[in-house]
């Protein structure tokens, strides 16, 4: 696969810095069918070949139950190529949110229900960890969303222990810029499936993404400095580890349109 060395560099750096993998772990990659989770799936499958701590890997997709359905066949074939067992969890989340509850602001409840289905499936399949495809830009956007809309300083954590379920969440791509994710998915023609959700691309997160892009045109490196502040402030488990040169170089480039 093209650009795999670069993708693995970012992924392993995050895993090592935050001690995300232990010997004998069974890790479920949450595959939403977007570019982020598919890139993570490929990275973890390749990393499994040589990482000093041996681990098992599976992939799990939560089927939201959209009326028009989604064809997960291409993802199944990718998993077969990568030698990763693939599990699809059927749900009625879409119908519950849009038809039964008729939620005006569905994203929060939807995310909560999807997480619950994913975590429970991972536990039932004997997993010790769930790997999620949040990347560098997601870290910055989440921090800014919390600041703007909730008036608090916070973010998700690189590693989260879910004591109720008995598994942990890991986010191996926290150092990986979104532009590298997009380039990897495009060059390797990953089977990205566009979400049929009516709320897709019409969210506060999308607004924040556009705002940061606009601000960075006149403030090169803005996202890197925000990420650095999160690490120096040790917010939600982040730490300043002095291994972010590649991210800094990316952030000082001209933002893409």
Chart the SSEs and their pairings.
Elements: H1 4-17, E1 26-30, H2 35-47, E2 56-63, H3 73-82, E3 86-90, H4 93-100, H5 107-124, E4 129-131, H6 136-150, E5 159-162, E6 167-170, H7 178-187, H8 204-218, H9 222-232, H10 245-251
Helix pairs in contact: 1-2, 2-7, 6-8, 6-9
Sum this structure up briefly.
Helix content is 47%, strand content 11%. It has 10 helices and 6 strands.
What report would you give on this structure?
The structure is a single chain. The chain has ten helices and six strands, in the order αβαβαβααβαββαααα. It has 257 residues and is of the alpha/beta class. It has one domain: Rossmann fold (3-Layer(aba) Sandwich), CATH 3.40.50. A six-stranded mixed beta sheet has the order 3-2-1-4-6-5, with helices on both faces. It starts with a helix and ends in a 6-residue tail after the last helix. The mean pLDDT is 90.
């Amino acid at each position: 696969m093209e650009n795999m060395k670069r993708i693995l560099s970012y992924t392993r750096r995050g895993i090592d810095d935050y001690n995300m993998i232990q010997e004998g772990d069974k890790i479920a990659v949450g595959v939403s069918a977007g570019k982020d989770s598919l890139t993570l799936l490929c990275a973890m499958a390749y990393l499994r070949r040589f990482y000093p701590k041996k681990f098992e890997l599976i992939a799990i997709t939560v089927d939201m139950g959209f009326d028009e359905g989604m064809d997960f066949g291409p993802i199944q074939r990718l998993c077969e190529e990568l030698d990763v067992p693939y599990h699809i969890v059927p749900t009625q989340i879409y119908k519950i949110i849009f038809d039964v509850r008729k939620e005006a602001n569905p994203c929060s409840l939807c995310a909560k229900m999807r997480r619950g289905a994913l975590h429970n499936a991972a536990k039932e399949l004997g997993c010790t960890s769930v790997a999620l495809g949040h990347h560098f830009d997601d870290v910055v956007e989440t921090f800014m969303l919390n600041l703007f809309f909730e008036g608090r300083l916070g973010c998700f954590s690189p590693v989260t222990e879910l004591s109720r379920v008995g598994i942990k969440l890991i986010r191996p791509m926290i150092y990986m810029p979104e532009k590298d994710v997009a380039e990897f998915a495009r060059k390797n023609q990953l089977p990205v499936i566009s979400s049929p959700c009516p709320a897709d691309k019409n969210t506060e997160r999308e607004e924040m993404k556009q705002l940061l892009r606009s601000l960075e045109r006149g403030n090169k490196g803005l996202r890197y400095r925000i990420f650095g502040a999160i690490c120096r402030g040790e917010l939600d488990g982040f730490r300043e580890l002095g291994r972010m040169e590649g991210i800094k170089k990316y952030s000082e480039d001209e933002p893409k349109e």
